């Protein structure tokens, strides 16, 4: 239990160790350029833009931590934000766990943010931090779905998949990052839930503990760069921001 008289300290862990297979062959996804600047740098700046965040831990490809550290030194942050780079693992869950292990005991609140969501607006980050600081143990930004969703019986490629249900769309949300947590709760979730139990995000691990998770509004520009078309959209959003907001 944290000491209530001590100021709350917030850190961000940025898993950036993935290859980006769905984006296609090339440099690891987080290091690919978006508007001439590595995607990871945009994600780091998005976390540093929140005044609450005093420490950022970047989880680099397992064999690339030194290179990532060198690269990030070329894009200095404001003095109030410390930056640490650690090597990641073979899965996102493992990479996040390694990032959490690098946090000092002075941290109370942690954000986990995909390097692959480089354009999340500062207001979304601040809303997640505020909800955790207000007492929620786990907070996820999310949006209502635009498409209808079907549950299917998966089949080998080329075989039509039988539909087994249509979940009520109004009850569904598409979940983004940064997800925010009371650090103790997230560490417990990562220590308890075994890899491969189907959790594709950190909040999913906390749900498996039986702890409450709440949703706050996400943002369209917090989308994940997963496939080539996402990169086209990201370039367009960035170009608009640079033309209208003086964004670098
Ligand atoms: N072993 C891994 C796998 C993923 N990630 C990170 O988790 C985030 C979300 O994952 P995703 O978009 O799925 O990235 P990739 O795993 O790189 O994508 P793909 O599945 O297409 O290879 C990314 O910032 C990615 O770098 C990570 O840190 N360590
Ligand atoms: C964490 C996440 O971005 C929330 O939407 C998502 O679950 C990551 O999934 P991926 O399969 O690693 O892209």
TrEMBL record:
Belongs to the IspD/TarI cytidylyltransferase family. IspD subfamily. It comes from Streptomyces inhibens. InterPro entries: IspD (IPR001228), IspD/TarI (IPR034683), IspD/TarI_cytidylyltransf_bact (IPR050088), ISPD_synthase_CS (IPR018294), Nucleotide-diphossugar_trans (IPR029044). The record marks 22, 29 as: Transition state stabilizer. Its EC number is 2.7.7.60. HAMAP family: IspD. GO terms for molecular function: 2-C-methyl-D-erythritol 4-phosphate cytidylyltransferase activity. Catalyzes the formation of 4-diphosphocytidyl-2-C-methyl-D-erythritol from CTP and 2-C-methyl-D-erythritol 4-phosphate (MEP). The gene is ispD. It comes from the Bacteria. The keyword Transferase applies. Keywords: Isoprene biosynthesis, Nucleotidyltransferase, Transferase. This is 2-C-methyl-D-erythritol 4-phosphate cytidylyltransferase. It catalyses: 2-C-methyl-D-erythritol 4-phosphate + CTP + H(+) = 4-CDP-2-C-methyl-D-erythritol + diphosphate. GO terms for biological process: isopentenyl diphosphate biosynthetic process, methylerythritol 4-phosphate pathway. The record marks 169, 224 as: Positions MEP for the nucleophilic attack. The keyword DNA repair does not apply. Pathway: Isoprenoid biosynthesis; isopentenyl diphosphate biosynthesis via DXP pathway; isopentenyl diphosphate from 1-deoxy-D-xylulose 5-phosphate: step 2/6.
């Amino acid at each position: 239990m944290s000491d209530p008289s001590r100021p709350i300290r917030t850190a961000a862990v940025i898993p950036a160790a993935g290859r980006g297979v769905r984006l296609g062959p090339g440099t690891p996804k987080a290091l690919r350029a978006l508007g001439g600047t590595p995607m990871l740098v945009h994600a780091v700046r998005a976390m540093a833009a929140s005044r609450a965040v005093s420490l950022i831990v970047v989880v680099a490809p397992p064999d690339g931590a030194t290179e990532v550290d060198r690269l990030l030194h070329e894009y200095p942050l404001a003095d109030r934000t410390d930056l640490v780079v650690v090597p990641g693992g073979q899965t996102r869950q493992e990479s996040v766990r390694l990032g959490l292990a690098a946090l000092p005991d002075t941290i109370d609140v942690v954000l986990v943010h995909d390097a692959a969501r480089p354009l999340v607006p500062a207001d979304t980050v601040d809303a997640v931090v505020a909800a955790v600081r207000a007492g929620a143990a786990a907070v996820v930004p999310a949006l209502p779905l635009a498409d209808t969703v079907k549950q299917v019986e998966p089949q080998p490629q080329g075989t039509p998949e039988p539909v087994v249900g249509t979940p009520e769309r109004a009850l569904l949300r598409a979940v983004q990052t940064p997800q925010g947590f009371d650090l103790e709760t997230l560490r417990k979730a990562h220590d308890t839930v075994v890899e491969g139990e189907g959790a594709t995000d950190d909040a999913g691990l906390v749900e498996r503990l039986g702890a409450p998770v709440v949703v706050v509004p996400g943002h369209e520009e917090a989308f994940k760069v997963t496939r080539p078309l996402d990169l086209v959209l990201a370039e367009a959003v960035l170009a608009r921001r640079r033309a209208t907001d003086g964004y670098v």
